[in-house]
Amino acid sequence: MGFLTKAVSLDGSCGNREAESRSDRFWRVPIFPVFDIQMLFGRPGPAYFPIDARRCLLTANARTALAIGLEFLDLSTNDSILVPVYSCGTELDAVVARGISLDFYAVDERLQVDLDSVRSALKPSTKAILVTHYFGFPQSIPPLLEFAQKHGLKLIEDNAHGLFSNDEKGDPLGCRGDISIFSLYKSLPVPDGGALVVNSDDGPFELEAGLQRTSLAASLGQMRTILERSLFVKLPWITRYFFQKILDPLVLVLKRRAKTDSRESCVDAGRKGERSALRRDAEIVTRYRPAAFTEFAIRRQNVKEIILSRRRNYAELVELVDSMEGVVVPVRELPVGCVPLFLPVIESEDSQPLRRRLLEAGIESHKFGFERDYFPDSGFEWESRLRNNLTTIPIHQSLSTKDLEFMKQILRSHRLR
After folding, report:
1. pLDDT in tens, 274-331
2. Residue that terminates a domain, selected from 212, 237, 256
3. What is the Cα–Cα distance from 375 to 377, expressed in whole angstroms?
4. Same domain, yes or no, for 327 and 181?
5. Within this chain, do residues 62 and 189 fall inside the same structural domain, yes or no?
6. I want to staple 86 with a disulfide (CB 3.0 to 4.6 A). Which of 56, 135, 182, 383 is the partner?
7. Rounded to whole angstroms, how far apart are CA atoms 174 and 65?
């Protein structure tokens, strides 16, 4: 659901992006899609899953969706959930905040659930299993459903990465589990947005009660980030000067004058690697709907073009990356119906020379996950390697032909080193 923000600065030094200069927020090729003003004037497009699901609740983020989903499933203290040890961490915060215990299982070299590990982790207190569709690549749900039904477990699909992805039968990811969660802002240029889908008919669907609208200040804060990305791609020096010399000082003055704690954007908060447990719990407990702009924009997306662009961009870049020494691509050929969020690669060297090269060139690249105290210290060496050595390469729908050629040039130059 989230991504490590530790990165290499443009001078090649390694550091935490939150501690680095604010100027490093500008990327020549950002990891997420950029805002297109034409989206404001488009007509609503055809409905798509999950927003057309019969029992769908839109939330500010996937973490909030999961917290509400756990409540719907009536899971709480004394219960435990099977979860992958290779996790973001923010989704598991929602589980821990509810007093639910975590039982960890492993994944294989293709990021698929290790069923033997799942069976070994099962306990009498286990009430559910959470399955992550990493980077939009489908897990094999039928055997997991069979396992869940055999042991009386609820199946939770974490599809924060897989908006628009389908399984081998052509069904959208997230339509098989008892509940599923989505993170809309990872795939679309919107300030926030998550979704909870309840696929079962058990119990009344009365989940909107008490949901608050995301504050205007929080929405504007993340909209500024989206606008920064978009403008910097087209007008880099003007954008950098305007935001650093004019807008940022103005925002700082306004914040000091307001003297109110207008809730920080849930997306910005979700990307911070170092937040207090108190702050995380407060964000989970507080129920927010997405910003009004988000609800407007998600219905005005060219879904067909997004799907085609992401699959095409992945196919163009994966050939270059897969031929490099010291790099492994978990999924070389896209499954039919899969719409990837990123191109994930695993580097053999802990120093991650490919990732360093991308960052030095201004191509934003993230690791997956935040550090959490509740992750096991031993017994999951492969997942530890994934956490340390897996990085992500942008393949989103906003990439232009020029962007792709630039990225290919950087990848070719790295391959020749």
Report:
1. 444 444 554 555 688 898 889 999 999 999 999 999 999 999 999 999 989 999 999 9
2. 212
3. 6
4. no
5. yes
6. 383
7. 13
Length of the chain: 417
**Count of CA atoms in the C-beta half-sphere (13 A) of 202:** 9
Measure the CA–CA gap between 213 and 391, rounded to whole angstroms. 34
Per the structure block, which two tokens stand in for 343? 């191109």
The per-residue pLDDT of the chain, averaged, comes to 84
Q: Are 174 and 180 in contact (CB under 8 A)?
A: yes
Task: List pLDDT tens digits, range 346-403.
Answer: 999 999 999 999 999 999 999 998 889 999 989 999 999 999 999 999 999 999 999 9
Q: Is the pLDDT of residue 404 over 80?
A: yes
| Structure tokens that stand for 187 in this block | 């795939």
Alpha helix positions (H), 203-275: 216-234, 236-241, 248-258, 266-270
In tens, the pLDDT along 226-244 reads: 777 777 776 666 766 677 7
325-334 long-range CB contacts below 8 Å, 24 or more apart? 326/353, 326/354, 327/354, 328/109, 330/109, 330/110, 330/111, 330/137, 331/110, 331/111, 331/137
Residue 132 lies in a domain: yes
What CATH number is given to the structural domain containing 363? 3.90.1150.10
Burial class, 252, CB count within 10 angstroms (exposed 0-12 / middle 13-18 / buried 19+): exposed
In a shared domain, residues 60 and 208: yes
Cα–Cα distance, 107 to 187 (Å, whole number): 24
C-alpha separations of 405 from 79, 402, 412 in Å: 51, 5, 10
- Going by C-alpha positions, the residue among 269, 39, 309 that lies closest to residue 164 is 309
**211 with 59: CB under 8 angstroms?**
yes
